[in-house]
Amino acid sequence: MRKFAALAMAAMMAVSMAACGGSKPAETTAAAAPAATEAAKAEEAPAAAGSGSVGLSLSTLNNPFFVTLSDGAEAKAKELGVELITVDAGDDSAKQTNDIEDLISKNISVLIVNPVDSDAVAPAVEDAIAKGIKVIAVDRVVNGVEVDCSIASDNVAGAKMAAEYLVELAGEKAKTAELEGVNGASATIDRGEGFHAVADEKLDVVASQTANFNRAEGMNVMENMLQANPDIKCVFAHNDEMALGAIEAIGDKDIIVAGFDATDDAVAAVKEGTMAATVAQQPDLMGATAVETAVKLMAGETVEKSLPVEVSLITKDNAQ
User: Fold this and answer.
1) How far is C-alpha 309 from the chain's CA centre?
2) 59, 67, 90, 145, 184 from 95: Cα distances, Å
3) The dihedral of CA 29, 31, 34, 38: what is its sign?
4) Helix (H) or strand (E) holding 171
5) Are strands 277-280 and 312-315 parallel, antiparallel or unpaired?
6) CA-to-CA distance for 261 and 124, rounded, in angstroms?
7) What is the spatial distance between Cα 88 and Cα 294, in angstroms, rounded to a whole number?
8) In sequence order, what are the residues at sequence separation of 6 or more whose Cβ sits closer than 8 angstroms to the Cβ of residue 283?
9) Contact 286, 251 (CB under 8 A)
10) What are the beta bridge partners of residue 144?
11) Residues of the chain with confidence (pLDDT) below 50
C-alpha cells in the first residue's frame, strides 16, 4: 500500500513539473511575438529619405517676385539651420526637369518646387516621390501628382479683383487687352480664369496673348496689340513684369493697366499713377512657409495639404 502511494505521489509530481516546465516556453513565445511584430514594422516603415537638406527649384530668378520668394526661403533656412540648395530653371521646363533630377542625386530630403509648366514638371516630381523625397509645391501646382503640401495665393480671386477694378475705372464693355503668363503654368491658368469670370461679362476683351511673365516680351506684345487695336482702353497683365513692359509700350496714351504680384517696381508705378493697380501676394512669406513646412515633414509631422496665402488689391489709395 505504501509502495502504491509513493508511486502515485511521484506520478502527480511529474505531471506538475511538466505543466510548470511547459508554461515557460509559452511565456517566452508570447513575449517574442510583439517584439517580432515591432521588428517587422520597423523593417516595413521607410527610413527618412536624404541627408536633411532641402532643394528649391524655382521657375526663374529673372523676376523680382521669385527673387523675393527665394530670399524668404534662404532667410528661414538660415534661421532654422537647414541646408537649402536653390536652382533656377530660367523659365525652361526641360532645364527644370534636369535641375530636379540633379537635386535628387544630391540626396535631398525635401523638394520645394515652383513649376515652369505644371504638367511638364510632373514626371520629375514623381521621380522624387519614388525616392522617398517629400514634395512641396509653391505658388504653382504640379498637375496630376499628389504632393505633400501646396502653398499658393488665391490667383483666381486676385484676378477677379483686378478685373472688377478695371470695370470700375474704364466702364463696362471697355476694350481690353490681356497679357498672359507662361503657357501651362497654373498661375497663368488660374489668373486667366479669374479675369475672364468678370471680363467675359463686363469687358470687351479684344486681344489675349502670352508674354511669358517677361517685361521685354510684355512691351513687344503690347506694341503689336496697340497696332492692331489702337482703341484699347485697359490692360490686365498676369504679372507685374508684363504690366511694366506694357506701360513702356503705351507711353503717354490714356490706358489703364493692372498687374499682379505687387513687386517693388509695380507698387512704385501705382504710386506714380502709371499703373492703376496690382494684386499683392506675399512671396517672402511663401518662401519662409515652404522651408518651415519642409522641416516639419523631415521631423515626421503631419502638415496641411494646402496652405493658402491671402491676396489684396493695391491701388493709389492704399499703396505704401
Assistant:
1) 11
2) 10, 18, 8, 20, 16
3) negative
4) none
5) antiparallel
6) 27
7) 19
8) 65, 66, 68, 69, 72, 139, 261
9) no
10) none
11) 1-48
Q: Residues with Cβ < 8 Å from 23, sequence gap 6 or more?
A: none
Q: How many residues does the chain have?
A: 320
Nearest of 124, 143, 142, 141 to residue 133 by alpha carbon = 124
| Separation CA 136–CA 147 (nearest Å) | 6
The reported pTM is: 0.76
Give the whole-angstrom CA distance, residue 123 versus residue 292: 25
Domain residue ranges of the chain, discontinuous segments joined by +:
54-152+283-308, 155-280
**Record: fold of 54-152+283-308:** Rossmann fold (3.40.50)
Distance of CA 57 to the CA centre of its chain: 10
Residues 194, 112: Cα–Cα separation, whole Å? 26
- The 10s digit of each residue's pLDDT in 103-157 is 999 999 999 999 999 999 999 999 999 999 999 999 999 999 999 999 999 999 9
CATH fold of the domain at 155-280: Rossmann fold (3.40.50)
- Name the average pLDDT for the chain: 87
In sequence order, the β-bridge partners of residue 314 are 278
Rounded Cα distance, 112 and 149, in Å: 9
Q: What is the pLDDT of residue 183?
A: 95
Percentages (nearest 5) of helix, strand, coil residues in the chain = 50, 20, 30
pLDDT in tens, 34-64: 333 333 333 333 434 677 999 999 999 999 9
